[in-house]
Amino acid sequence: MAPKSTLSAIKEGLEAHVGLKIKLKANRGRKKIVEREGVLENTYPHIFVVKISETQKSERRVSYSYTDVLTETVELTLCDNESEVKLKY
């Protein structure tokens, strides 16, 4: 099990990026990798929520735990206007 300080550092790092556009790459197992773009909507004590706009009228929210980021099951990339920065913890 990861130390609480590591998970807290991931949570605090993501809190600084709430409301910003991110790219999400999630490993779903059995060679299934999902890549989406969305907005980091909120952080909670054990999970964070990303709002994904699939079409103009439909929105979807997905949640992941900070442990997923730590184990690199989920990779997050911060998207600015010109550049992309991969978030590493």
Can you characterise this structure?
This protein has 89 residues and is of the alpha+beta class. Helices cover 19% and strands 47% of the residues. The protein has two helices and six strands, in the order H-E-E-E-E-H-E-E. Strand 2 and strand 3 form a beta hairpin. The radius of gyration is 13 Å and the shape is globular.
TL;DR?
The protein is α+β, with helices and mostly antiparallel strands. The chain contains two helices and six strands.
List the helices and strands and how they pair.
Elements: H1 4-15, E1 21-27, E2 33-43, E3 47-53, E4 59-65, H2 66-70, E5 74-79, E6 84-87
Antiparallel strand pairs: 1-2, 1-5, 2-3, 3-4, 5-6
- Specify the structural class: alpha+beta
First-last Cα distance: 16 Å
Could you estimate the helical fraction of the residues in percent?
10-25%
Beta content comes to over 45%
Largest sheet: 6 strands, antiparallel
Order of helices and strands: HEEEEHEE
Strand order in the largest sheet: 4-3-2-1-5-6
Number of helices: 2
* Assembly category: single chain
> What is the overall pLDDT average?
88
Principal-axis shape: globular
Mind telling me the C-alpha Rg? 13 Å
Low-confidence stretches: none
Number of strands: 6
Name some characteristics of this structure.
47% strand; 89 residues; alpha+beta; six-stranded antiparallel beta sheet; 19% helix
